[in-house]
Amino acid sequence: MTNQKENNSNGGTKAVLTALLSNILIAVSKFVAFIVTASASMLAESIHSFADSVNQILLLFGNKQSKRPADDLHPFGYGREQYFYAFVVSLILFSIGGCFAILEAIEKIQTPHEVSSSLLLPLIILFIALILETFSLSVAIKESKPYKGDKGYFEFIKTAKNPELMVCLLEDTAAVVGLVIAIICLFLAHFTHNPLFDAIGSGLIGVLLICVAIILATEIKSLLIGESADPEVIETINREFVGGKIKSVIHNKVVHLSHDGLLVTAKVEFLPNVKSEEISAQIDQAEIRIREALPQYKIAIYAESDVHNENKQLKA
Hints:
Blueprint: H1 2-6, H2 8-37, H3 40-66, H4 81-110, H5 120-148, H6 153-159, H7 163-192, H8 196-224, H9 231-241, E1 246-258, E2 261-270, H10 276-293, E3 298-305, H11 310-315
Parallel strand pairs: 2-3
Antiparallel strand pairs: 1-2
Helix pairs in contact: 2-3, 2-5, 2-7, 3-4, 3-7, 3-8, 4-8, 5-7, 7-8, 9-10
């Protein structure tokens, strides 16, 4: 488990790079298909893939920015820049992806344009895109498995701390579903000679992207404003605090500074008759135990001695 989590950043980056290369190829091919067919669904899908390409570039940039060392202005570092750029991604997905597709659908309903009779080229492009997107999704799923454990994917997305894996899973899933919608609607528009199906396809893709963007924005916002560590991580920290002359943890608050960075603030109770000069040494030893138990995290620890009091614990 340790080695898996230590590779968390690399896993997310691998998924993003795979998605970026796939989306660049897919975006160009979809746009060629749009030029051939004048299909609203194809245009919505091509804009979706171009937006996804920009999103992956933003994620890579955010990852690089988050690794800058701490300074006087940001004493805990820049780890949350990952979350900021992932939140920007959700806004792009909502506006450029979802809203554009819905507007395109409305325009096609108001002024319908018959889809080109040429079906072979766009179908070839769509199926190639589907293969590439499915491969990209499989990479994201593979990279997520070590951290997902027994959780379902929806629960994993709600609890994940790595925004790159979260974005790739959601974007790639939306891309695969969107391509299936585009293929079905293109078939229907072609064989019924009714461009309304094409407009419906664009609208459905837009609704799909907006739903994904809302889910993504909600989860990233939680991380951006400071989300608690997983219960098992907090339990490990509390367990490692106790030892030597530290009797118990009165209360402990652990929040993520980045996907692999933690801020720990704790009040601990010592055994009776512990000398004041021993307190600092005991806390230092506890910090060593905690970092050895959780080597996959960069941990800032602030702990102080206190006396156990139920009322105080409830207020803390």
